[in-house]
Amino acid sequence: MTTSTQSRPLRILIAKPGLDGHDRGAKVIARALRDAGMEVIYTGLRQTPEMIAEAALQEDVDAVGLSILSGAHKSLLPRIVQVMRERGLGDVPVFAGGIIPNEDVADLKSAGIAGVFGPGTPIADIVSFIREHTPAHH
Amino acid sequence: MTQSPDLASDRRALARLITRIENGDPATRDLVARLYASAGQARVIGITGPPGCGKSTLVATLARRLRIRQTPAESSRPHVAIVAVDPSSPFSGGAILGDRVRMRDLSGDAGIFIRSMASRGALGGLAGATADVVSVLDGAGFDVILIETVGAGQLEVDIARIAQTVIVVEAPGAGDEVQAVKAGILEIADIVVVNKADREGAAQTIAALQSALDVSQPESAGAVAHKHGALAGARASDALRNTKTEASATGDAQWRIPILKTVALSGEGIEAVLTAIEAHAGYLRASGEGARRRARAVEQDVRARLADILARRALATIGREQYDALMAATVARAIHPAEAAEQLMNASWGK
Fold it and tell me: What is the ipTM of this complex?
């Protein structure tokens, strides 16, 4: 009998860029991903793009989730993708949630955000999105 | 990985190596062994204590102060690694690793590397891979490694095997005197810190801890020791690295566990903690206790790994049916778990 091979939990960074005053949504996502068997590194409020990229690097995460409510997504999210690319993390998928109007989604996707999830997105959709986008789990 | 990357400067390579160690990737074994051979230079400090006592904030404040206190020159500042362990969910296997929230201010400092680890089922307050991760960080050239355990109470004492100096953190009102005397993790303390000391009840907490320590080290008159005795040996200028500088000037044969007050959020009392850490390093060298502790820790580590190998080999030789039958018999209480384990061992023996 061979012992069951250890499953390797996915490591996901959940970060709050910008000046949002609360992080309830981010915490809900963090808990849901934990309950789906993932290891969630949670950074707390008011993270700069550089802080997020550096945390993603040090924690060697499989994906980065950004929660943003402030309306600054059009400038902040592309900037985060850019800083991550500068640090060699261009292969780490980035997804976003929070208050993001539909008309901005296309621009964000062309800036390198792999998925955008508005309020009310079922958690299961986010979980399967992450699993689909992290096949080459190093 | 066939050759050793420059892990100190290539943080991505270091981060990826840590992931592979966590995942038990056998291909990392040679590299881990090479780094183990060059490790032993770093100061390894464990920080433990109950949930909510301020461990993460204390770790962050210690790290920041270590970086800026001695030399203004950026290049000669000690490199600090932080390993922060949080529990995995026993149900999903997932985890929320939230220690970075309190370490936000360290984020811009390229001389600090922070890694969060999930305990992944280990029960001793660390993760199974923590020891290897620490020796990799040590071998990669970090000067100081701060390990934050999961929120710990009475059983989570594995940190004493990995750290040279264990700091047990308490907060006012966290427990009454009975809790302090019961003293699970207090037994592994080299330094006791009462954090959030600006809060009501700090004096009572210190008194309770003091009387608990007086019971366990009756000859020490600890209340006096923490004011002047044990700490006199360390000079603030002593390097934190384990270079073979002169021993603590007092050459203490005994270590008296100091109880120090801090307010980690404001930085109050942090310098005294760093001074105590240096004094403890001096004690470990002068008394020979450092070498004895390490020898004990290595022996325990080898034995734990031996047990792990034996269990895996035994299970690998046993058929699924026989295994399931034994488990079913044990569940039905037809045999005792000790007997089941014995039978598994015997069945695999000689195969």
Answer: 0.90
